[in-house]
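Request: How about a record?
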Amino acid sequence: MTRPRIGIALGSGSARGWAHIGVLRVLEEAGLAPDLICGTSIGAFVGAAYASRKLDALEEWVSSLTRRDVLRFFDLGSTGGLIKGERLLHFIGERFLAEDFSQLDRPFACVATDLSSGREIWLKEGALGEAVRASIALPGLLVPHNVAGRFLVDGGLVNPVPVSLCRALEADIVIAVDLGMDTVRLRLRTPAGEGNGWRHRVGRWLRRNDTVAETPRPAITDVLTNALAIMQGRIARSRLAGEPADVMIAPRLGQMGLLDYHRGVGAIANGRKAAEHMLPLLNALMETPAYAD
């Protein structure tokens, strides 16, 4: 008997994706490291870093991030999205990604969405950084990425947890990591009326005739990310019902905002806990003759 070929589908979820690091750590420690990796959005980034043999460096960086560090990467865009993403993508490409798919130590593929046609695009060759950049382009937040004449955006719009891609790459056992099981919690913010900075002055001007100016409301980034999270969660439920994984890992991350990239330590710990909970099932599947032949 030979060892079944394990594939892992790392789902979308913005900052919650740091939980993927904890999941991958547990699998490696249990001697069940995946033979192939597929990812969508943040899952594409973490999966690509893992296949580039850079998981140690990524975990160290994620664990040290502060809110101020995160804000330094936000280079404001003028068209297509709030953030251009060039500063961030240059940094992560230099630090955590191999240059090309051919340099990876195991098969890897990621999902993006064609903004013109709505088609699901599977990226499996060429420049790794370009593929990851396309897969993480959250609409409205990050500027769409032009790849071979097509504007590509976040793969979570069509396939938030890419089990189907793992099957296409001939995985015998597919582990899915779904980051959207917990309800997204909006953080309401009361507009600040004090201060003389330009944000305060503009805010006061916009609220001069607003009778509900002091009613707590979500920030625009929360509106964008949470609306997309709700949509992607619905799509994921539908896709997973028709394309079920053999093992489902669902870290509990409801307390974590989708832009809380500075809370990586807690996300990694929750990923570890969720993966450890599912190890007995995975070990049982590994010993099942149907998979082991």
About this structure: The mean pLDDT is 85. The chain has eleven helices and ten strands. The two ends are 5 Å apart (CA to CA). Residues 188 and 217 are 5 Å apart (CA to CA).
